[in-house]
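Morning run. Coffee first, then this:
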Amino acid sequence: MRAIWKGAIGFGLVNIPVKIYSAVQESNLDLDMLDKADFSNIKFKRVNEKTGQEVEWKNIVKGYNHEGTYVVLEDEDFDQAAPQKNKMLNIQQFIQEKDIDSIYFEMPYFLEPQDDGRSAYNLLLQALKKTRKAGIGTYVLREKEHLGIIRPYNNDILVLNRIRFGEEIRDHTELKISEMEVRDAELDMAISLIDQLDSNYDPFRYKDTYSDALMEIIKAKAATGSGKSAADIPIKQTKAKTVDLMEQLKASLENAEKKKSAS
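And here it is:
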């Protein structure tokens, strides 16, 4: 893995030099865009909108449209905006991880100690494990300030989860949510269904089956030069026999019981 950020965690007066690595990878297939006529790759160019000429990366700058005039920003301008945050993630408070709603969580990163930070890194790891706390702080990555939570993962490494700022969550109160009364019998049946499907979470239980199915189609087309198109494959649809909520709950519960007894 390649580090995407090098800096330090500020833990009180202790600095812990670390490297940040992306903790996730995409499971979808890497598809290229092609010209339908001859399957040539489609290439994107960076062009000047006035001249139509391609512009090399070395000649591209970043600018902000301020009252109709562009103000160009250099690398040192980004550094000057928050020099302490460009290379430092200062832990500003410690909390219980459960206090943060999942809607705030974004991207996870692994934290690896640099050579001169191993002792302090392990100290923070063990302290967080023992107290069952997580640290909150801000940092700058790719010219943008982020909020992050540092916590132990799998008991042997620190993980940084990028989380959203409060103002980034949209107001949901304008959405129309049904306020219809729920009958006690329906609620009891729904709870029974939840209890039937209750189990410990195993992330490896779930798999990206869509990508696997798509790969099978790709292999079939490669082998035969054709393969079925999406229009040729029948889509199985299940229609509800009744719109009665209680009957649907009963049928769902019976189905869950059958699956549980069969496993």
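The chain has two domains: 5-29+60-166, 184-231+240-258. Good start to the day.
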